[in-house]
Write a structure and sequence with these properties.
The structure is a single chain. By secondary structure, the protein is α+β, with helices and mostly antiparallel strands. The protein contains 4 helices and 22 strands. A 4-stranded antiparallel sheet has the order 3-4-5-6, with no helix packed on it. Strands 10-11-12-13 form a 4-stranded antiparallel sheet, with no helix packed on it. A 4-stranded antiparallel sheet has the order 14-15-16-17, with no helix packed on it. The longest helix is centred in the last third of the chain and has 19 residues.
Length: 411
């Protein structure tokens, strides 16, 4: 599964070079699981930078998920209160609630009279621009309107246990880790189907999912103390990485599982991987960590090591990052649509090229982001410009070309 084609390797090297030549690296957001806060770190040095979210800000309690929206703001699951909160992507300050009479920072509420035990976990924005949230207590994935915070129809409801990791594939389908069956489900058109069978490759508890640029899927195994790698069909499992430090034998008193409890994984700007680790194996230390790996599963460095569990992570671009500016010239313009059309259907490192929603795929959601940016008046030169619609024939041709490319790679 790691036999990258020479063409892919060459293109990926060019991607890395382009990042290293660009001084505008993003920051890393890391949730402090029990303290109820979000650290903001320089992604190269691991040093704290302004714009983090202090514990308890806007009522944040037990951070169980963090992501960055297409608007550049920070969305956080507050498991202790059953809410999703949101904060300014630059300052980390609570944003005005979209709910009439809502308190600052409140984006959506999961725990209601109908579902009093609902608790939010990992969360991601989908290709449609809306927010998808794992509901631990309700055993479902819930969907919220990105503009209003109001709940929409459930994205998926058939799970044996709490749904955990969420990601979206090149086909736009939702992929969900199922704790109850130790499996990964694919949700297409609202209908779940088995993608990775139960306990495949020794999988115990899938807590985070991430597609690599070549289409392989990484699955973080919380209790299995490992990251597993599967091909684009959910088959041929192998161990991508085992998580240090070495597990003591026998376990110390109070340790529940022989695991360092890796929790969440994301890309950094260089195309490497950062992994948040709860570190609950060795009480009373409970040292959390943020580890950096390359795409071959080699541990590069420990970015952060501290005496608090770290349970979720995401990358956030600098404040001057312009969503929808796919050719990176500081303008939102029709040329960015041309860039999106040229990249459509491609898998790539998150946020590269025309991947405006950071899901590693150039899809219809990235067109929506560009179109909204054009309509918001972000165009800096040339006045108003009619927004082009993607021609159906163009999308079909590009989709066929992508499919043929995949077939040739498999031959």
């Amino acid at each position: 599964m790691r036999n990258y084609s020479p063409c892919f390797g060459f293109l990926f090297c060019l991607t890395l070079l382009s990042y290293r030549c660009d001084p505008s690296f993003g920051d890393l957001l890391v949730g402090t699981a029990f303290e109820g806060g979000v650290l903001r770190l320089d992604e190269l040095t691991g040093a704290a930078v302004p714009g983090g979210i202090p514990p308890g800000n806007a009522g944040l309690s037990l951070t169980s998920g963090v992501t960055v929206g297409p608007d550049g703001n920070i969305y956080v699951s507050s498991r202790g209160t059953g809410e999703v909160l949101f904060f300014d992507g630059d300052s980390g300050s609570p944003l005005p609630s979209p709910h009439l009479g809502g308190r600052p920072g409140l984006f959506a509420t999961l725990a209601t009279g109908a579902t009093p035990n609902s608790t939010p976990g990992p969360l991601r924005f989908g290709p449609d621009g809306h927010l998808y949230v794992s509901d631990f207590g309700g055993n479902q994935v819930r969907k919220f309107d990105s503009a209003t915070g109001q709940e929409m129809a459930a994205a998926a409801t058939v799970f044996a246990g709490p749904p955990a990791g969420l990601t979206f594939g090149a086909n736009g389908d939702l992929y969900v880790g199922d704790f109850g069956s130790a499996s990964v489900l694919r949700v297409s058109g609202g209908v779940p189907s088995m993608f990775i069978p139960p306990q495949s490759g020794g999988l115990l508890t899938p807590s985070s999912l991430l597609f690599l640029p070549d289409g392989d899927l990484l699955v973080v195994d919380l209790f299995g103390n490992q990251i597993l790698q599967f091909d684009e069909n959910g088959q041929n499992p192998s161990q991508f990485a085992y998580i240090p430090p070495e597990i003591p034998n026998p376990l110390p008193p109070g340790a529940n599982f022989p695991s360092n409890n890796p929790s969440d994984i994301a890309f950094d700007s260089n195309g490497n991987l950062v992994l948040a680790v709860l570190g609950l194996t060795n009480p009373p230390d409970n040292r959390g960590a943020l580890l950096r790996y390359d795409l071959e599963g080699n541990l590069l460095e420990t970015v952060l090591d501290m005496q608090t569990p770290l349970g979720s992570t995401a990358r956030i671009d600098p404040a001057d990052f312009l969503f929808g500016d796919y050719d990176r010239n500081g303008l939102i313009e029709p040329a960015d649509y041309d860039k999106w059309r040229a990249d459509f259907g491609e898998s790539m490192t998150n946020w590269d090229g025309a991947d405006g929603n950071g899901n590693g795929i150039v899809d219809a959601g990235d067109y929506v982001i560009w179109r909204k940016a054009m309509g918001s008046g972000a165009l800096m030169a040339g006045g108003g410009v009619a927004v082009p619609e993607p021609a159906a024939t163009v999308l079909v041709v590009i989709s066929i070309a992508c499919a043929l490319g995949l077939l040739r790679r498999r031959e």
